[in-house]
Amino acid sequence: MLSPPGAGKGTHGKLLSQATGIAHISSGDLLRAEVARRTELGLRLSEYTQRGDLVPDDLIFEMLIPAVIEASRETGGYLIDGFPRTLPQAKRAAQLAIELDLVSDAAIYLTAPDNVLVERLRDRAEREGRADDKPEVIRHRLAVFAEQTRPLVDYYRGRGILLELNTNRPQAEVHAELRAKITAALGVPLSRAAEQSGTSQVRHGDSWP
Questions:
Q1: pLDDT at position 131 over 80
Q2: Are strands 162-166 and 107-111 parallel, antiparallel or unpaired?
Q3: Treating both helix axes as pointing N-terminal to C-terminal, what angle do 40-49 and 27-37 enclose, rounded to 10 degrees?
Q4: Angle between helices 87-100 and 151-158 (to 10 degrees)
Q5: Residues 76-98: pLDDT tens digits?
Q6: Integer Cα distance of 152 and 76 in angstroms
Q7: What is the DSSP-derived secondary structure letter of residue 7?
């Protein structure tokens, strides 16, 4: 799941996880958890997150690969929000897909106007007190997304797996359209039926295309 900060990756990732039973893996949540635990990896990660910069690829893969493997094994699929964030990450992830047999069926791209994104992030900063939602960091993160992550949109569109939605409308409307798009793209119903039967009908994400 791919989007600029504030477009709704976390919200819609959780909703899709509830609908399908597959694991929702938030790269941002994993980063913040490592930093909060002050592990060796967390201390290295905090140097980048405090500035709003992208974390180096080696650290990201070190953190995410075990989570994706576990999710695929335990829930039959995975949905990652916030990764990959650069074209080199996507290409490296594609190579790992061959080695680890972790396939992605769809790359979900959520969008919204910049002024809407800024307002959402400011509101979130007031509610949650997140250090990465300070005004100067917000502006920097949006600029980093435009420069380094937006090229992935054409990459996934070229592969024929991009599902694009504007989230500047009611949440329920976005979620309904997203479920319809995924069902049409995969050719299977998007429900928890697979989980209840002990097998998985769907595997989503954009990490190991």
A1: no
A2: parallel
A3: 120
A4: 40
A5: 888 998 899 889 999 898 888 77
A6: 26
A7: S
The residue type at 160: G
Tokens of 202: 């769907």
Query: Whole-prediction pTM value?
Result: 0.80
Burial of 157 (C-beta count, 10 Å sphere; 0-12/13-18/19+): middle
Tokens of 178: 């997203």
By C-alpha distance, which of 163, 196, 144, 153 is closest to 5? 144
* 207: three-class secondary structure by DSSP: coil
Nearest CA to 2 out of 178, 194, 130 is that of 178
Helix or strand holding residue 111 (H, E): strand 107-111
| Secondary structure element (H or E) that encloses residue 80, with its range | strand 78-81
